[in-house]
Structure formats: C-alpha cells, structure tokens
Amino acid sequence: MKLFVLDVGNTHSKYGLWEDGKIKYSEECDTISLADLELPDNIPVAAATVVPKAKKQLKRKDIFWVEHDVVTGIDLSLVNAAQLGTDRIANLAALACNAQLPAIIIDCGTAVTVEVLDENKVFRGGHIAPGRFLQRKALADYTAQLPFLPVNQTRAKTFGLNTEDAIMLGTDIGLIGAVREFIADTKRELGINSCQVYVTGGDSNILMENINGLIPVSTDFTLLGIAAIWVLNNC
Fold first, then answer.
1. Which candidate in 48, 90, 205, 217 could, as Cys together with 225 as Cys, close a disulfide (CB 3.0–4.6 Å)?
2. Active-site residue list
3. H helices then E strands: how many in the chain?
C-alpha cells in the first residue's frame, strides 16, 4: 500500500511517500511555492495544513485532508477539536501508534507545539509558543533597532556583551526554559512523576543538548500521523 503524504506548515511544507507503515522518502519545500509541487496521480494523497488557503493551491481535488471530524484514533472530547490545528491532530495520531502512553510530543517549528496523550489515548491539552525564528522575527519587526538574526546552531560568543549575543541567549535559553516548564506543567496536570517525552522539528537539537531525557523522533513524525489517520478512514 502506497500513499503520498503532505504536511503544510506556515513556513515550510514536508512531503513524502508512505509505504507499508514507513516513510520511504521525504523532502521539503517553501510553503509559499506550494502551488508548484507536483503531486502523483497514480496513488492516493493525504494532507494536513495549518494554512487554509493551501487547499486551493494544490492541483489535485481528491486529496484526503486531516480534519477534526475524521476518524483519528484519539479521544478529543475534552477540547474544542474544531480549533485544534491539524498538524497537532496528526502528531497525536502518530503518538498513539508509536509511543508508550502517557506521552508528550514536542514539535519545534515556526511555533512550538506540545501535546499530551494519557494512557487511554485521551488528548489532555498542551501548549503553543513561538519558536526561535518567530521570537527573533518579532524582535526585529516590532523594535526600532534590534536586528533579525537567522536561526542556526551558532552560539553566543559572550554573555550578552553585545546585541547579537543578547538576542541569541534570550531566544535560545528562553526556548529551553519554556520547554522545561511545559514538561513540568504537563506532569503536574496528569499527576505523574515521569512519562515519555518525544521531540521533533527544526529546533529539536538545541532542546536535546540541554534537556535530559528527551527522545528524538523522525522529522517525518507528522507525516506518519497523517498516514495513520488516512488508514483509519480508508482501510
């Protein structure tokens, strides 16, 4: 069984071929150029998007879209599912299929999203925060003199003795501290001392280097969730 899977993000979109439970290959493109993406015409296509207008940009009209009201394999009854981003729904579906529950998935893209499933596959809520890129862009866009610093693995050379290093420290340490508190807050909410915490996305490396116990998962994690939901609805 083959399926073309697509995850449309705010900045980047990821796509690939899912076959018999695994992602055989995956690639990325800028979401702004999504209309140029060639979709295969000989296999089904399943997609999730946080950019509603993306649905109008794609050439195929028979795409299966992940939505809150399709079969997901998870219990969304505690939340207003209509307001839940479909990328988060896909991450939850992947978590339900691949993790020892209860578990947390942290996805570090333009936004940092945190979702938690309890042992009964009930979505118990989560967190949304700006990622490093968005934090740095906001500083540049809404102040008169602060520059925009691209997000990479460059470390501050001093303890904030110049503007650039101060921005790096503020956004990097701010993300690390926020995620630590997200995890602690989730454990308090569930009334547990420990659980599996999975991490994926562009900023996952900085978190792995600074927070003990995180479990890295493939950057294809959301694609796996999209495929899992498609299978539940079509097989």
1. 90
2. 87
3. 6, 10
